[in-house]
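Researcher: I'm preparing a figure for a lab meeting and need a structural model of a single chain. I don't have an experimental structure, so a prediction will have to do for now. The sequence is pasted below. Please return the structure as tokens so I can convert it later.
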Amino acid sequence: MSEIIKFTADAGVTAAAVILLMGLAFCFLGLKIFKGVQFVVCAVLGGMLVLNLRTIFPGEWVYIAAGAVGICAGLLGMKKYKAGLFIASFICTYAAVISGFAKSAYMKVKLTVEAIPDAPTLFTLWWMKMQKGGDMAGAAGEVIGAQADEAVGNISAAVNMLQRGMAIALIAAIIAGVLALLVGDYIIIFFTAALGAVLIADFAERAFTLNADMYFIIMGVAALVGAALQITEIKKKKK
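Model: Understood. Here is the structure written out token by token.
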């Protein structure tokens, strides 16, 4: 029993230490971490693209070429990290905007399909037309035509909504991508500083049993200090 308690305590201490280290890293080295992640992603993608040539060009040189291309792609991705930020911002913004329009268009089509009367209802409408003096074929054509016109009109409106949404999403995505190029460094810095601050505050809460006010104070101070130090470092490099 004592061994179990000791193991649990050791695991808790280890988890707290990991949380603190991750918090400090994100808070004060967020931009460098982002560049490092982009290096790894680009290196893996570049290497995998070359490895796909094994079926065409068998031989050990493919692995050497994959390693070389992977390193070059990683360095390029780290050096031109804002290009990746532009692509990510563009894709995420486009997906977020278009999803709203797509959902609205889908609901419009769904409600239109659900509103189509069933056979007994159509028969009742046809019978009512017949009672007003219409002929059998004319009454049937009038009932079916009215339902078809309404359905086609609603589906056409849904398609137009989706097309309009695609145009708006494209414009919004381009704006988001350009903003990412202009202020991408600061977006990464504030995001990573905030993430690191949350982890640091979590560590402090585990270690010292803080109340809610002190938790948010530590989180805010850590985020501001981390962001300020990262921004200062960027400005020094630009001079």
